[in-house]
Amino acid sequence: MSQSSLRPRFKHRNRPSILGRFDPVLTGAVAVLLVMGTLLVYAATRDWYAHAGLDPQYYLKRHIINIAIGLAMAYGTTVIDYRLLRAYTPIFWGLGTLGLVAVLIPGVGSTINGAQAWIALPGGFQVQPGELAKIGIIIGMSMLLAERSHDSDEPTSRDVMQALVIAAIPVMLIIAQPDMGTVFVISAAVVTIIAVSGASSRWVAALLILAVLGGVVATKSGVLKGYQIKRLQTFVDPTADSQGAGYQLRQARITVGSGGLIGTGLFKGPQTNGRFVPEQQTDFIFTVAGEELGFLGSGLIIFLYLLIVMRALSIARRTNDPFGRLMATGISAWFAFQVFENLGMTLGLMPMTGLPLPFISYGGSSMFATLIGFGLLQNVHARSRG
Amino acid sequence: MNQRSRLNLFVVQILIFSLMTALFGRLFYLQVAAGPKYRDAALSIQSRDVITPAIRGLIVDSSGVPLALNKVGLAITLDRIAIDKQPDKGVAVMQKLSRLLKIKYSDLYRKTRLCGELPTGDKTGCWTGSRYQPIPITKAANPDLALQIAEGSDQFPGIGAGPIAIRNYPGILGVNAAHLLGYIGPLTESDMAKSSGRKYFRSETIGKSGLEIMYDSYLRGVPGIRTLIVDRKEAITAQSHISAPLAGDHLVTSLDIRLQAGVETALADAVMRGRSSGYASDSGAAVVMDVTNGQILALASYPTYDPNIFEKGLTVQQASDLFSEKKSVPALSRPLQGLYAPASTFKSVSVIAAASAGYNLNASYNCPAEVQVGDRAFQNFESKSQGTMSLKKAIAVSCDTIWYRIAFDQWLRDGGLRPKDNPSDYFFKAAQSFNITQKVGIDLPSESSSRLADRSYKKSWYQQNKDFYCNYKDRASKEQQSAFLILLAKENCLDGDKIRAGDAVNFSIGQGDTVVTPLKLAQMYAAIGNGGTIWQMMIGKAVVKTNGKVVKTMSPIQLGKLSAAPSTLNFLHDALREVVLTGTAAGAFAGFPIPVSGKTGTAEVFGRNLNGSKKDNTSWFASYAPSNKPRYAVVMMVSQGGFGATTSGVGVRNIYETLFGVRGNTIIPGAAIFPDGKPPTILPKISPATKPIVAP
Fold first, then answer.
1. A253, A302, A337: residue with CB nearest B24
2. ipTM of the complex
3. B658-665: which pairs have CB atoms within 8 A and are 24 or more residues apart?
């Protein structure tokens, strides 16, 4: 009889530090992605900046700083019991919503690629409140749907409606930017949280229908801006706009495809070094992996995402706490659909939207948000008793 | 966790797993399954080929004397990319350049526009190449001006000057041969589109016409390529591949430059002779062919143009002159693109027809002033009665009425306007055995097909024109509504698909709807001369590498055989000799020491010239020589040249004089072009410095 098999998984007393109670698979997968992402951001920018006579490590340095700040934030979210986070939820949500209002004010918000989604800060930094709002919505909804005023097994319609209001306010503001990629990801997370909350199936069905109708109305009624219609058109026919969005999509596909099985080798991709794909360090970072690391390297990235999301969902399943479960489910859906939208766009399966790739793309707000999400998952994991 | 939550969580897990699997599948497709395709696409995005043109092969005559070679020229070029970036789109620079080079600004502007940039219908002089290659304004610049531009590059931004390899047609012995040789020019989009398997490189220069285009794949060689890897801003990041240019192969032709010069002069003289006799003489053609194999020894078209104008830099005026009706369309190559009624030269066909219809070729026939055919009287040439004569004599003096009668009789026998199911059609069949509607197959582009007005032609003509003639009053223009034309239209509508008596009669003397190219007539007379073989016409003899290795030898190709009996051909030989001895060409060939056989032709032409005058007759002389052992067929045609004998007959005599080395009536020893009596069969040594051997 070995000692280890008898030992309970988590002892209340004599508990090791929070880091020791992290899920090692989740941690490992995220760590590999962070390292790969750092190399890819460097690969995407070093030649470009060197040719322009600038510091080739400019993006590399900033990316590493972003990761460091993000990891600190992630650690911060794990220190206190996530259940106590509920108290801070209104702050998260409120700040995110306020930020979303602020970006719409002319002079405060700045427009990048057609979406007014950024607030410029001194020192060349920019924050994207939409990223903060994602976390606010997920925690807020999970809190409302988990805390019930009665002893029912499932949330009442009133609970669901309250939760939807929590989501709807920031979503409306994001539609106004408009940043349809973020809307898509939040909507997918909202539907998933409600589905897993145990709410009536009618709610899930109704929300799915609403999402489809919303998509149709948006394309038909002119809610979408010209550049978005163009992106949708070029999704159907990439040659339609060969200089703009279509150019980007075609270049992305060619760059990924040209990598073949094993790729050109890191830093050796001519498409990447020639800077043929715009936005390559942010939304199109996966093309660098495609070209330079080939099917083996880029396939590994997809595998790691699958691993992270499946691990996150199993954390959701194992915890006894409804709040933790819904939060972990929401974060899983967020990661999964954001990865799917970003890679789908790069590979030509989804229309073009501006969404960064979690853990990999260059960009502070997204890096902070995804690492906070990662921290929350670890928090739930560490404090779950299966 | 309730049951529904558990189930939904499972569904979410499955859904996300499927989405990730879809991504994985798509990634596999892009990188592994379609990877090679995308690798090629990436390569074409990143790479830029810089072309070093290959040295083009020479075109030489059968003794190795160059007809086309390469020279170093001084080019002044304009870079459209740089010019378009200038705030005024280069107007100031181009104005300055137009003053310096003394060319019109409008010309300079047009020459540097892509053809697509100019309005439809007014593209003359446009640049047929791409925007990305320097556009040559001239390739034969004055060295002082070129130096001025090269040194003052800040004063002429976007303009370059430097040495460039140019194609040169040296015109040795004054030879022109513009229609034969063609010219070269920049590769165009449409060339790329119809390249059909040939690999072209952008910014390459290729053959555009004549032998230059027909043998382009040999002459062009393989250009050297430097592949550069560039980034999105076209900055060069690496150089990936270098290959040296491979010089093009030389083309040896069957032409003889001395004979070619002689033929061109004889043709020009014939045109002048026609003009001095008061005829319009707008154009002409002359050809010398080896009757034993179809090789072309000389070929001339009048009017012509300077074959070097394309490389010198064509002015807009020059470009439009090439196709100007007023200047008789110098671009048109008459020997292969001009179609003319063969007139009396066609009587050789009628002799074969009469023989196969059972007429006694040795009997005597009456040659009256006119023959009544139906309700129309058909006149003899100049309405003269010549009395009774042998058929041989009838050919010699070119009696028409004998043929009217025979053709009319045969037409009646075949059922007239209600033809028998199986008409004998001796005339049509005799003509068909010459393969008249088949091209002569010469290795020059855009040859026209000759037309034979036989029954099937009539039927297809009727199909195309029935609607017009049967609704004449609605379809025809006001000027076409005269009583005579309305009557004619009615007739055409009624039985336009039938051979009428008039058609049959006209056919027998080579008038009416039958038209031939001068080359076709030469091929026909060569077949008569050589005993019945129809040879494909060829100018190319061999393709030879720069190291002397023979790549390809063109062997003669037999296209057909005349159906005429040997006795008929023998009669024809006698009759055609008689033409030169005592007949219509006796004057032209008086005292000529080599026996020549031939036939004059004077074809009536309908229609009017630009100035409103009635068109003059087409002058023909078709011949072969020496009569006893034919080796050469010589045909000359002068459009609106008047009589066959005096304009073309004398012209052909001049050609034979050159060919056989005859001055006056005597053969100068050693002056014949081919001392052995036949063109050389051994391939010459090829060098751009080869000089022709000119007789003392």
1. A302
2. 0.90
3. B658/B258, B658/B259, B658/B262, B658/B263, B658/B266, B659/B259, B659/B262, B659/B288, B659/B632, B659/B634, B660/B593, B660/B594, B660/B625, B661/B695, B662/B592, B662/B593, B662/B594, B664/B591, B665/B591, B665/B592, B665/B593
